[in-house]
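User: For my dataset I need records formatted as: sequence, then structure tokens, nothing else. Please produce one.
Assistant:
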Amino acid sequence: MHDMIYLDNGATSFPKPLEVYQFMDQFYRNYGVSPGRSGYDLCIETGELVEDTRRLLCQFFNGTDPNRLCFGYNSTDALNLVIFGMLQRGDHAISTTIEHNSVLRPLFHLAEYDGVEVDYVPFNEKGFVDPDDFGKLFRNNTRLVVVNHASNVIGTVQPIAEIGRRCREHGIPFAIDASQSAGMIPIDMAAMNVDVVAFTGHKSLMGPTGIGGLYVREGIEIRHTRAGGTGVRSAVRTHLDEYPYRLEYGTLNTVGVSGLHAGVKWVQQQGVENIHRREMALARILRDGLREIPGVTLYCLNDLADHISVLTFNVDGLEALNTGTILDVDYNIACRTGLHCAPLVHEQIGTAEIHGSVRFGIGPFNTEEHIRTAIDAVREIAESRQD
């Protein structure tokens, strides 16, 4: 395990900073009780950490009200709350072909079973959507635009501020999937005209799995699609309307919140821009090395401006799964293969028919040596196909 080169950070960042492991262990050993359920000291102190983390993330996204930062399991959970809570029969939504299934599947469900109409904006040959294409699709019944901030397949960062400006001018709520971007590139909801941001903790925010959430701008309301315990005003028969309880159900994953708290603190100490700059320097070495190898095809990587450190490729004559298996078994390099839960991306770049691509995801703990070793491994695999 210690010799493994981990290049699957697009799925889950690994390892986590030491501070995250230590803080989670210390917190759960000493404060592992339910917050907000009673008035004893331990319960109050646990609740204080939860509220501190709300404030931390609210500031991180440049929100205005920490109570509108709601915790969930991950960004898929958060996006389900947003999509099912903002769309109903007769509504129209706009998304893109660059989306993850955390957006595509809820939208498909609503279109298939609940009478919601959905349009998808395609990306161009460089991997970017055109903000003007959204305006062409706006209708009187358009109730939501939802866009993947940074692609988990080709790594392109979409022009969110421009899309958001067009939505704001037409009074259409705008939500972003920040699964890949939160913790890797700055997110300023005010400057970017974003109404809802959905995030997960286990990627570039350096937290554990099972924690994430969403921030909802004031003036944007999301209907209840669930109901349950909140620990507050228990005599009320219906689920509470006020935030954060409006979108939180049952006992929070407090150990997950503690890990997320420590992860965000670590990211802030390092500096989001510094992390991104270093990762993209490694991504450039990786991109340049891979594109010099005969028989290797790269996707949407001619220009690394407005990218995150996710790179996708294939070796001619090999399905992605087989390339990934060789990288794992023969070179001890961990990566992701397949459709990456984003089938429309692969349909556009022409890899759906060959079962997807190989993805390298660079993280804060990767080194130049890791990258050089990965390039050499892919070169040897490609050369073996030409013998």
